[in-house]
Design a protein that fits this description.
The chain is an all-alpha fold and 241 residues long. It folds into two domains: 1-59, no CATH class; 65-240. It has helices at 26-59, 61-66, 72-100, 108-136, 143-153, 155-169, 173-201, 210-240. α1 crosses α3 (72-100), α4 packs parallel to α7 and α5 packs antiparallel against α7 (173-201). The radius of gyration is 23 Å and the shape is globular.
Amino acid sequence: MQCPNCKTVISEEASFCGECGTPVNKQEAFDSNAKSNEFVEQSKAISKAYISYLPNAIKHPYASSKHMTDNKGDMINSIITLLLFSFLIPFFSYVVAHSFYRGLTPSFWDMTLRPFILITISIAVITAVMFGVIKLMKLNYSFIRVMTTFGTLMVLPTLSVAVSIVLFIIGLQEFSMVVLGFALILFTLSFIATIISLADASDTKPAIDGYYGVILTIIGVLIAGQILGEALSEIMLFNYL
């Protein structure tokens, strides 16, 4: 354990720090270690659950999306996928810029973390648009259920972006761009498939035909994308002025 004052490593049996003489509260140290161990165990459990969740989401994305729920496990898995996608897209741009303009690239914050935040917000807005359309269709789903369905369908686009980054790093730049384009097409198909999946899995007949639900979703996403795109352009322009 560590001394609470000078952070010197001391033995578990010590009553005070041999370096600065500060008395050691063993209970505090025990509680701190217990909390740390609990966090590590929770992280391991979440990682294990996510890894177990991936194979079905990759092999049978549509079928898996129909069986999603709004429970905590499905929610965490979907959030991880959506956050990974939000991070990997700008990280790809950073890798490309770093490769071609060594020493002249913007900071990791400007090129990756700031866009990551904006893309995360965009995905939250897209999910909200889909939830609104689902409500117009009078289907009894929660916001979390819409998100878990969307998150499952986003596993393939996320995996594709990750593959495109690896391909670029190993020197297959042209093929990498093709895979990235494929990932963006899959992204578009994912929010369309979300509406179809939820309508298909519902026990009640939608008040609006699924075809029109998809059209409304596309219109809503385009409007939200235009607004968020302008905001992103202003922020990026401000960074380079």
